[in-house]
Amino acid sequence: MPNFGYTSKGIFEEYNSVNYIRGLKALCPESGFAQSITAYFKQYGAKTPRIKCAVYTMGINGLPDRLLAKSEEWTLPAGFDGWHTFNLLSNPELQPNTYYWLIFWTSDEVYAYYVTGDLGCDTSRVYDDWADPFGNVGTQGRVHSIYCTYRTAAPIYHTLRVESTPISVPVGINGSPIGNTPIEKTVEEGTYIIDVPTEAQA
After folding, report:
1. H-helix or E-strand containing 16?
2. 177 and 143, same structural domain?
């Protein structure tokens, strides 16, 4: 799928303190639907911070304004040094030739990477839920290693229904429990593994 943002590991290492937010203003070249945000991190000392990302619109002042989508949260594991992809919890429509802010927020110290360029923002806030509108933030002469992946067509959804007789059994999709039968789940078109107890597969 296509993406926009900065897709290379920056040549400069960047220390991020506790409860720190940084972002990149990035141009989306075409219409699409945001799917995920990917960013480069490296562990600082023995810290294993919680990290999450978000997509914001750009306000008239050029800074982050309204929240478009937020990601799942991830805990950085020991020894990590690389890219991580954060799936978005919703898939907002993106407008062509429009700037968006791609932002990460860390609960504890971590390294990130950047190159120079007048496209960054930063601020410090207690790690919590994303603000909407974003609020006060400073600018940075940095281009952070973070990008958004999007799809050019709206996702297709289907209803998945699982039944069992004569008893109800627990069901999971791709390793995540969804409840007991009979149960319905709306899923995006794709390939899934349905998990049921071994004794119920006969």
Report:
1. strand 12-16
2. no
